[in-house]
Write a structure and sequence with these properties.
alpha/beta, FAD/NAD(P)-binding domain, Guanine Nucleotide Dissociation Inhibitor, domain 1, 2 domains, seven-stranded mixed beta sheet, 19 helices, 18 strands, binds flavin-adenine dinucleotide, FAD/NAD-bd_sf
């Protein structure tokens, strides 16, 4: 598609800016090397890396804080801190290096075994896994590692799929588990990747992506947490570091990508600003809804329209007399004992006696806070009737903090994976002066997003800008580099 003339587009923008009620139009034009849309996990990490490489960056974030899904609730009376979004990280050099770069301490934690188990829909108590079940899980983890990760462990680096795509990657993860004898691992995969989706249907590609070699090692060993107990410490430090290179509460009005760079029109606090950048890095979910102010090409639109996503509602609630209980939800009669969805993952003690954390999964992102709260109330009522929690908890519950994380788990179906969707998606990298990062490109796991940034996106942007770059050792030394990875890294445009 031919790019519209910049002058014409700007004239239109100026007209639209003047018509925004109460807005001022700032004549000042901000010139940067890289404009980054989205100040979440992927956007902020790449901003720090690019700044360190000498690039002038500007992060444009729609909310009044950076950090994306990293949200925290602090009880005003007890001061207890609860991460109601991102809380743990894989134990990898990429993660440790990033925390160290921002001067935020880390500590290690072991994944604790689930507390008291109940089927939250049926109110049935479930016995904890006995010695035999635990041995079965360990045997399944070994089978998974030997038969699956040995073949597909490189997926940790990104969706660099071979052509043709192996059938094993688009069959349901439940079927792959049956083929390679790791069915006993599926409940663990679902527990640590809440909210994962239905394991009888979700393509194995996503199961492996969400449970790669580093994640497997970390869940059976040590995970990393912020040493302050608050994941947001990372983003407080990043904001300090980036200073005026972050524009909060900013709305993207229009994006024009042209032959010499990218021009953006944005509004912040009623002021309209023009940003000119050599390169654009998009670090928001690539759905048509999120990208509605973009000048999408036909192929971008066609690809992004294939995505669908899930909803994930989290927060902290209060029930008088809760008394620091922790309950985890297990499906008594469901495949792989996955909790029924819509449904909760767990009601977990927070450290404040009457408060508990909740996380509710939905099969769609077309839901609202009230839908999430209704599920919590319904399951509390069931558990109260079963005598697991205070009577009338379903009526007595109040919500101290809540957040709907949508779109979550942005994915495509098996047929698209088979047809080579990810090869086409990756071919967008670098074209029209635009790069893309975030969970849809790297997996819903901060460590994977940062790995993708370090291994692929940041080196490619540096190369494109003429900034010196060296591939990180961890990337080059032990990995199987597919043609897609090599072309992306070497900055070859498609
Ligand atoms: C509840 C929950 C818990 C999780 N827990 C963990 C965990 O413990 N460990 C882990 O590694 N991963 C966890 N994840 C996965 C986590 O989502 C990813 O690691 C990471 O947040 C994905 O990064 P991202 O940059 O793609 O998205 P985000 O971090 O969500 O960042 C996207 C950013 O873009 C902004 N934005 C969106 N649209 C626009 C727009 N139009 N203009 C400007 N800005 C915009 C958003 O406000 C947001 O700040 C969790 C996810 C959820 C939902």
């Amino acid at each position: 598609m031919k790019s519209p003339q910049l002058g014409f587009v700007l004239a239109l923008w100026l007209k639209s800016a003047a018509s925004i009620e109460g807005s001022g139009y700032s004549n000042a034009t901000i010139d940067v090397d890289v404009a980054i849309i989205g100040g979440g996990s992927g956007g902020i990490h790449s901003a720090i890396q690019l700044k360190d490489a000498g690039a002038r960056v500007l992060v444009l974030e729609k909310k009044d804080q950076i950090g994306g899904h990293a949200e925290t609730y602090i009880n005003k009376e007890t001061g207890v801190v609860n991460n109601i979004g991102v809380s743990v990280f894989e134990d990898t050099d990429v993660v440790k290096r990033y925390f160290a770069r921002l001067g935020v301490p880390t500590s290690s934690v072991s994944a604790s075994p689930p507390s008291t188990l109940y089927d939250f829909e049926l109110g049935i108590p479930i016995p904890p896994p006995d010695e035999g079940a635990q041995q079965a899980i360990l045997a399944a983890a070994k089978a998974y590692s030997q038969n699956v990760l040995s073949k597909y462990g490189w997926l940790d680096q990104g969706y660099f799929l071979p052509d043709p795509v192996p059938e094993e990657l688009y069959m349901p993860i439940g079927d792959l588990a049956a083929k390679y004898n790791f069915t006993a691992l599926l409940p663990i995969m679902a527990r640590f990747n809440w909210h994962f989706g239905n394991q009888t249907k979700v393509p194995a590609l996503y199961g492996i992506k969400d449970f790669g070699p580093d994640f497997l090692r970390s869940t059976f060993g040590q995970l990393i947490v912020s040493g302050t107990g608050n994941t947001r410490s990372l983003y407080d430090a990043a904001l300090k570091e980036l200073g005026s290179s972050v524009l909060l509460s900013t709305t993207i009005l229009a994006v024009n990508r042209h032959s010499t760079g990218v021009t953006l029109l944005v509004s912040q606090n009623g002021m309209v600003k023009t940003i000119r950048a050599k390169k654009l890095l998009v670090a928001i979910p690539p759905t048509l809804q999120s990208l509605k102010s973009f000048d999408l090409s036909r192929s971008e639109r066609a690809l992004f329209s294939r995505f669908s996503s899930l909803g994930y509602f989290t927060g902290v609630a209060r029930v008088p007399g809760w008394n620091s209980r922790s309950l985890a939800n297990v499906g008594a009669f469901t495949p792989f004992h996955q909790p029924l969805i819509p449904g909760s993952r767990a009601f977990r003690a927070t450290g404040t006696p009457d408060e508990f954390y909740f996380g509710v999964g939905f099969p769609t992102d077309q839901v609202a806070d009230e839908d999430g709260k209704a599920v919590v109330r319904r399951q509390l009522a069931t558990l109260a009737e079963a005598g697991a929690i205070p009577a009338a908890a379903g009526d007595a519950v109040t919500f101290s903090a809540s957040s709907f994380h949508m779109p979550f788990n942005v994915r495509v179906g098996a047929a698209d994976i088979k047809k080579g969707f990810y090869a086409e998606l990756l071919a967008l990298q670098g074209s029209r002066n635009t790069y893309w990062t975030g969970a849809a490109w790297a997996g819903h796991n901060s460590a994977l997003v940062w790995k993708f940034n370090e291994g692929t996106i940041v080196p490619a942007i540096k190369e494109d800008l003429g900034l010196e770059h060296q591939l990180p050792l961890s990337w080059n030394s032990h990995l199987h580099l597919t043609p897609w990875m090599l072309t992306t890294i070497s900055g070859v445009k498609h």
